[in-house]
Amino acid sequence: MSRVLVGVKRVIDYAVKVRVKPDKTGVVTDGVKHSMNPFDEIAVEEAVKMKEKKIASEVIAVSCGPAQAQETLRTALAMGADRAIHVEVTGPAYDTLQPLHVAKILAKLSKDEKADIVIVGKQAIDDDSNQTAQMTAALLDWPQATFASKVEKTGDGLTVTREIDGGLEVIKTKLPAVVSADLRLNEPRYATLPNIMKAKKKPLKKVTPKDLGVDIAPRIKVVSVEDPPVRQAGAVVPDVDALVAKLKEGGHI
Amino acid sequence: MIKSFVKLISKNNVLEQIRYASQALPQLSSEKYNIKRKTFGTIEPSDVGYFRSILGEERVLTDESDVLPYNIDWIKNCRGQSRVVLKPRSTEEVSTILKYCNDKRLAVCPQGGNTGLVGGSVPVFDEIVISFALMNKIDTLDDLSGALVCEAGCILENLDNYVREHGLIMPLDLGAKGTCHIGGNTSTNAGGLRLLRYGNLHGSVLGIEAVKADGTVIDCLRALKKDNTGYHLKHLFIGSEGTLGLVTKVAIHCPVLPKSVNLGFFGVKNFENVLKLYKSAKSKLGEILSAFEMADFDSIDCTVKNLKLPNPISEYPFYVLVETHGSDEAHDSEKLTRFLASEMETGLIVDGTVASEPAKMQTIWNLRESIAGAGLAGGYVFKYDVSIPLKNYYDLVPILRKRLGDKALKVFGYGHVGDGNIHINVTVPQYTKEVSSLLEPYIFEEVSKVNGSISAEHGIGFRKPMYIHYSKDQSALQLMKDLKQLMDPNGILNPYKVLPDAV
């Protein structure tokens, strides 16, 4: 049976309206409700399902971030992960933490924990990078099965269905491997009350990137973060002739 | 901000028109309920000409397909025969319209978001519909006192989004928030999901501007918490469903936006345990408890199946939703954890889930809020909204199941336990007089026996005037009639609604 490492990121909840900081260095996160990246939730669900199907022996959740990342890890534990590792990154270092750093951390932990499968969400909804799975696979020199919409254990490997333009692609991979979860892979469960209570007592280990020997000096500089342009207000025209005239005036027809 | 409100509203109306066009029309209310038209004037082309002269062409709708959506209520229960819809933009225009209608004895039917459940918002015969959709401007918001002053046609959800930007929330929340108007909420004294915490509109509405039948504008629009100067006239317009005057502006008190919100959704074994859990929630969660709602198995089952919504927990005979609003996350979650641990121990909570993430909480609330509309997918729904003392709260549901047998698809109950208010829905493939006569007045008699109210929050509207006596004494009804006579002597305001003909 395999050991599964699943990466979870704490992001601004998708129901919250995101605001750009006045100095355009990023977005406002203070006092804003956060939750687990929805794609990572799908990744956790898949890992827990693997355990329920006895494909996996243990599920380890990992999150990189400030102290509050532990809340996200508790959510993963409540969903069914067995233990958690909090890689503490705070303050300015967290502001500049990039997919390459996270990939290095996940790669190192995969080796340390002797994981056979790494599952992460295909991207985080805050920076939309879509790089961590791919970089982790490259660093480990493992096969990668990205954008998975179905994962099955076949023989000593995985058969993964991927959503690609205009259809589905089915690939087979040996283990160990890195998988990234797409939207339709599963529907994440709500943690039940008994499991929420149990999660409070499950082991959670705290480490730092330094402990893991990972240099988190930024490689990319964020130049500016800006709001999308405000959509122009529409106008109501009295009849078709006026509409046609307006369209002509605007050079659309 | 104001411009975007206008845009939202017009978009909603278009959607509504499309929705109605795709459905079979309900029977005319006058035929279905055997009502005779009162001796009002009939609309002449010259009347339409007059309305056009004050509102312009675009704000006087006379085309049959344009008028149709204003004639039908959203539960497809009532259909009126109005041929004219007026869309005033200001109090002055409402006043001018009413003065003219009063002089000519033309009946009017005020309409907000048309989300009412007792047929109060649609005409019965050819009453002129006065739609408040274009009166959607926000006047002022005092973020220190929390007083919001706005026009009657503002959509509740838009107001909530607006005041949230200023660290406040609207004191009421209901399933129809995306469509209903604050003027309609006020006129019907709408209750909703957080009444338990923030009280009803008689408390949170600070002031009202309304227009009487003869066009007189009554200005009670002070945004004061305390104002004991003479009779509290604003209360006459709260809950009188547009029969004493048309609300044009509202001053309302908005509580502060809670910093910490938690939502629990639990499975409970039986109704007795629901009540025990309520008692425990009141004492263990105390001041942070903001909602305590229940739904029985069929309510949730019907919503999950008909609307294809996810149920976050397994199946249970009863479900309870508990929400907390507080100012300190650590404090609230500690309290909640203790409450949960203790009630799981006692077995009052069999299973469940809790969430503090906005997206997850929305999913859970959405399930609860969608129950009201879920039955419609199966055909026709008889809807009852009654207040019953808590010890008898759920009694009627099993009684009705037995009484109707296989004549009903489903009988289910859900509602605001905290307010003693239960909604009972009876779903049938289609409306029949037979089922109707098994339900009415039977339900109202039963409610009356336990000193309940036959309408907790939906109002009397068109559907219940004949039953009002089950909840109001003759002496009270007579005074209501006197007030109506005083304020609307020609009876042009929302006729056939609220008060029965014979008192």
Oligomer: heterodimer
* Number of helical segments with 4 or more residues of chain B: 19
- Could you estimate the helical fraction of the residues of chain A in percent? 25-40%
Structural class of chain A: alpha/beta
Count the beta strands of chain B. Answer: 16
What is the third-level CATH name, the topology of the largest domain in chain B? Uridine Diphospho-n-acetylenolpyruvylglucosamine Reductase, domain 2
Mean pLDDT of chain A, to the nearest integer, reads 94
Unreliable runs of chain B, pLDDT <50, ≥5 residues?
1-22
- CATH class of the largest domain in chain B, named Alpha Beta
Number of strands of chain A: 11
Q: Per CATH, what is the topology of chain A?
A: Rossmann fold
* Overall pLDDT score of chain B: 92
Contiguous low-pLDDT stretches of chain A (5 residues minimum) are: none
If you had to describe this structure to a student in words, what would you say it looks like?
Chain A: Its main location: mitochondrion. Chain A: Keywords: Electron transport, Mitochondrion, Transport. Chain A: Belongs to the ETF beta-subunit/FixA family. Chain A: Residues 24-216 form the Electron transfer flavoprotein alpha/beta-subunit N-terminal domain. Chain A: Heterodimer composed of ETFA and ETFB. Identified in a complex that contains ETFA, ETFB and ETFRF1. Interacts with ACADM. Chain B: Keywords: FAD, Flavoprotein, Oxidoreductase, Peroxisome. The complex is a heterodimer of chains A (253) and B (503). Chain A is α/β, with parallel strands linked by helices and 253 residues long. Chain A has a single domain (2-249), classed as HUPs (Rossmann fold), CATH 3.40.50. Chain A has 7 helices and 11 strands. In chain A, the strands form 2 sheets. Chain A has a 9-stranded mixed sheet with strand order 9-8-7-10-6-1-4-5-11, with helices on both faces. The longest helix of chain A has 15 residues, at 38-52. Chain A starts with a strand and ends with a helix. With 503 residues, chain B is an alpha+beta fold. Chain B has 4 domains: 2-131, Uridine Diphospho-n-acetylenolpyruvylglucosamine Reductase, domain 2; 138-253, 2-Layer Sandwich (Uridine Diphospho-n-acetylenolpyruvylglucosamine Reductase, domain 3); 260-371, Alpha-Beta Plaits (2-Layer Sandwich); 379-471, Alpha-Beta Plaits, CATH 3.30.70. Chain B has 19 helices and 16 strands. Chain B has helices at 2-21, 29-32, 45-55, 64-71, 91-104, 156-164, 182-187, 195-198, 201-204, 234-237, 271-285, 297-307, 329-346, 358-369, 371-374, 396-404, 433-439, 442-449, 474-487; strands at residues 60-61, 85-86, 108-111, 128-131, 138-142, 147-151, 205-211, 217-220, 246-253, 260-268, 289-296, 318-326, 351-355, 380-387, 410-416, 421-428. In chain B, the strands form 3 sheets. In chain B, strands 13-10-12-11-15-16-14 form a 7-stranded antiparallel sheet, sandwiched between helices. Chain B has a 5-stranded antiparallel sheet with strand order 5-6-9-7-8. In chain B, strands 1-2-4-3 form a 4-stranded mixed sheet. In chain B, β15 and β16 (421-428) form a beta hairpin. In chain B, α1 crosses α4 and α11 packs antiparallel against α13. The longest helix of chain B is centred in the first third of the chain and has 20 residues, at 2-21. Chain B is globular, with a radius of gyration of 22 Å. The model of chain B is unreliable at 1-22 (pLDDT under 50). At the A-B interface, β3 and α6 of A face α1, α13, β13 and α14 of B.
